[in-house]
Amino acid sequence: MLNFLRHIRAAATGKINVELELRDMLKKLNCTYNLTEDEENHVKRYYFDFQSGNFVAAFYNEIGVEITYPNCFSVPAEEIELMRLNCNRFNGGSLFHRFFYNGNEEENTLSLHISFFCDNLQEHFVNLLKACFQVQRDFIDEYKKIRERDKEEGGPLDPEHRFAQDARELYLIRKQELTHQVNAPAAADADTESKLTLGEVISKLFPTDGIEYTTMSTIAGDVVSKTAGHKAISETELQSCLISVTDGKARFVADAAMLIVNYKNNLTNDPERTITIHLKAEGETSNSVFFRVTATLIPQEVSRANTLESHANRPLTISFLVQYSTASEKQRNQEFEYMWEDAKIKIRDGKYSELSNDQRLLAEIWQTNVAYNLYWGQMHLRNERYYQALLHFENAYNSMRSEVFEYNEAQRYNFSEICYYVGFCYSVLKNYEKAFFYLNLVSGTGKIRFATAIVNAMANSADVRTFSAIDGIMEEVKHEYNINLNNPDDEENEDIPEHIIHFVNFLRRRRIYAQIEFNMLNEAEDALTQMLNEPENADYAMEELAYINQLRIKQQNNKSDELPF
Q1: Could you give the residue ranges of the DSSP H alpha helices within 243-385?
Q2: Confidence bin at 65 (pLDDT 50/70/90)
Q3: Dihedral over Cα of 436, 442, 446, 450: its sign
């Protein structure tokens, strides 16, 4: 009754005595308390125990109270990066509780504190107080997971930066996880500091063994020209159709251009084939111009050996944005040399914690040309400029491979990273055969990035080895984590790291994609039906089930069109 009357008075005056409310709540909960006052800062603090936890309530004014659950978890001081990472994660996802930490110099440890603000003690205080214990358990469980993952990744440099970088690379890899309803992923960017010759571009995008260019027609604005001969066509610079450079300034001379290239294959008796390359001006800055390259390999003629449904008869289109920069080679060298020297100085002075993953890899490379190409390749890769990244990574690979058997363990690790980068870029550019060549060099290393890239390359190219590769990886995961592979979201998988759950779901989706590619529709449909009840896979399952339905209708229509003899 007294509380009711006090709230009636508060409603009339617009003010509630929060301190009296707290005392009432603590009395109801049978909590004893000690009161201290900081007169200088006008702060009152109530120290009380609740369910074996020590809490502090602080009043700064009459609008509410801040409750802190102090020193509820402790870790060694050298794990400060992990503590910071986990606090940032939980602060970003928690609606009511705040997570922060401080150091104990005497014990060389870090202590976690959890707090919440409450302005309506009657409704929320008890629930938020009890919730402190649950979020404490969640924080500790997640911390143990990222600490274990940090050990696997070779920490302790800066896990927050490394995890963010890994997440970025996984995002780029996952963009290659195609579904059957949508078009290919949005065109990726590519950057280049060198001339784009037609022969080089085509060799990166399409299989070119044994091909000989015969004729090429170029249409730029109102100008039409023809070129004959393999050498002349191969050495044609793409940017010359659109761009003119005068006094160090690049400008467009046409809005668009089209190259129609015919070629024959001297290793086969196949008819001539055609590649079209469309160039379109996209914009310019003070020292760069941008244009889009869209290359299409026209399908082969339909025959008994090459039906309408065959993979060989599907049009293959790759599109990327090119930045043509007038920056000098000297300027690029100066930027690289500064970053390389900075990384080596930090290694020399023992400042490992200040190194990013890119800098650490860069500092361990002793060949200047390899380090230069690795630096610029990584710069382009992080920003989805895959074509130029590929040129740099291939240069680095070619410089290192002749000495690979003389390398120590750290050098071989660097070489495997470069193999992965080359294969990854080829996979994005849909040259899956070349992608698999490089990615296969790093198979079996246990890295999720590597395994994800290999599976994408195989599944997207309808490689017959896709099933055995995925099944082999799944067995390894099952043996390592004792996970229920048929339903990763099952309660029995509660203690499995979250990134492993996501990886297993990725493998399951890729296996279903391959089943559809190989017309194993019944098996794919059964697996997709199960996925409809899984939050991470439900959208994918609905899209693929719709596609299977379209396939069956199409197959039935084709069957009805067959002749009766």
Answers
A1: 329-348, 357-363, 368-382
A2: confident
A3: negative
The per-residue pLDDT of the chain, averaged, comes to 80
The token pair at 420 is 């992965």
Task: Name residues whose C-beta falls within 8 Å of residue 515's C-beta, 6 or more positions apart in sequence.
Answer: 521, 523, 524, 527
Query: Strand 316-325 vs strand 223-228: parallel, antiparallel, or unpaired?
Result: unpaired
**Does residue 9 or residue 44 have the better pLDDT?**
44
Work out the pLDDT band at 523, boundaries 50, 70, 90: very high
Q: Helix, strand, coil: what percent of the chain each, to 5?
A: 50, 20, 25
Q: Over the stretch 135-146, which tens digit does the pLDDT of each residue have?
A: 999 999 889 888
Q: Which of 291, 277, 296 is nearest to 322 (CA)?
A: 291
Query: Residue 262 and residue 272: Cα distance in Å, rounded?
Result: 7
Tokens representing 57 are 């309530």
CA-angle at 190, arms to 184 and 196, nearest 5°: 115
CA atoms of 196 and 188, how far apart (whole Å): 17
350 burial level (CB within 10 Å; 0-12, 13-18, 19+): exposed
Q: Which two tokens stand for residue 482?
A: 């004792």
Report helix, strand or coil for 463: coil
Cα separation of 173 and 259, whole Å? 31
Question: Residue 354: its pLDDT value, please?
Answer: 67
Where helices occur in 206-322 by DSSP H, the ranges are 230-234
Q: Specify the amino acid at residue 498.
A: E
Distance separating alpha carbons of residues 65 and 67, to the nearest angstrom: 6
Q: What pTM value is reported for the model?
A: 0.61
**pLDDT tens by residue, 349-385:** 766 666 666 666 666 676 778 888 888 888 888 877 7
H or E stretch including 203?
helix 198-205
Q: Are 197 and 238 in contact (CB under 8 A)?
A: yes
